Amino acid sequence: MSSCSGKAVSNDTHSLTKTTSTQQASEALPMGSHSDIYYIALAVDYANLNRFDEAEAVYKEAEQRNLQSEILLASRYQLAFLKADKEQMARIAMVAMDQLREQYTASLSVG
């Protein structure tokens, strides 16, 4: 019986940590954060809580702020995978390929 209560405490602690993390990240966004890490953390927290629509809204806000990174794309791809959204997965893969192509082309012109 004590092992079951230990699991309950562990789950409660995990939920509290997730709630605190989600709250901290969501509070940082209105302050005009220009770092994608807050958006990624918040969206991943929402996805882990099965709040996919809220996670997608966070990614859209990051996109509106013109935040771009490989990690942001990978995280957004993971959400599309969890939602089984093949069209979104394909769009994200195309954006990633375009970015790689641009980086490769830029490296050729420098060298």
How would you describe what is shown here?
- The structure is a single chain.
- The chain has 111 residues and is an all-alpha fold.
- The chain has one domain: Serine Threonine Protein Phosphatase 5, Tetratricopeptide repeat (Alpha Horseshoe), CATH 1.25.40.
- Helix content is 82%, strand content 0%.
- It is globular.
- The N and C termini lie far apart (67 Å).
- The N terminus is likely disordered.
What is the structure about, briefly put?
The chain is mainly alpha-helical. The protein is built from 5 helices and no strands. It is globular, with a radius of gyration of 18 Å.
Keyphrases for this structure?
disordered N terminus; 111 residues; mainly alpha; Serine Threonine Protein Phosphatase 5, Tetratricopeptide repeat; 82% helix
Sequence-ordered SSE layout with sheet pairings:
Blueprint: H1 2-28, H2 36-48, H3 52-64, H4 70-82, H5 86-110
Largest sheet: none
Q: What pattern of helices and strands is seen along the backbone?
A: HHHHH
Sheet/helix structural class: mainly alpha
**CATH topology title:** Serine Threonine Protein Phosphatase 5, Tetratricopeptide repeat
Low-confidence stretches: 1-16
Helix content: over 70%
**CA-atom Rg in angstroms:** 18 Å
Number of helical runs? Answer: 5
Q: Approximately how much beta-strand content do the residues carry?
A: under 5%
> What is the CATH first-level class name?
Mainly Alpha
Mean pLDDT: 80
Number of domains: 1
Question: Ends: how far apart?
Answer: 67 Å
Q: How would the global form be characterised? A: globular
Q: What's the architecture in CATH terms?
A: Alpha Horseshoe
Give a count of the beta strands, DSSP E runs of length 2 or more.
0
